[in-house]
Amino acid sequence: MNxxxxxxxxxxxxxxxxxxxxxIEPQPQLFLQKATELQDCIMRLQQLHTEPQRAREEIxxxxxxRVATLRRKRILASRVRLTHV
Length: 85
Description:
The mean pLDDT is about 80. The protein is an all-alpha fold. The relative contact order is 0.08. Helix content is about 80%, strand content about 0%. It starts with a helix and ends with a helix. The radius of gyration is 26 Å and the shape is rod-shaped.
């Protein structure tokens, strides 16, 4: 997530934290509806932020195992070359 997106989310969260402090009694239905929509929007943006990271990890798979396997192959290949020289 870049800084602009982080600032936008923090601004939304700031607005959401100020909404309960508004002294309107009773609070209008539209006001409550928009507060709920804003909360849903913040949650969705945070989910969208984590999806690419999770997908990247799923695509990569167990990196440690693959690195160890490649390292083993590379070491064995260099030893085979040394014995044939």
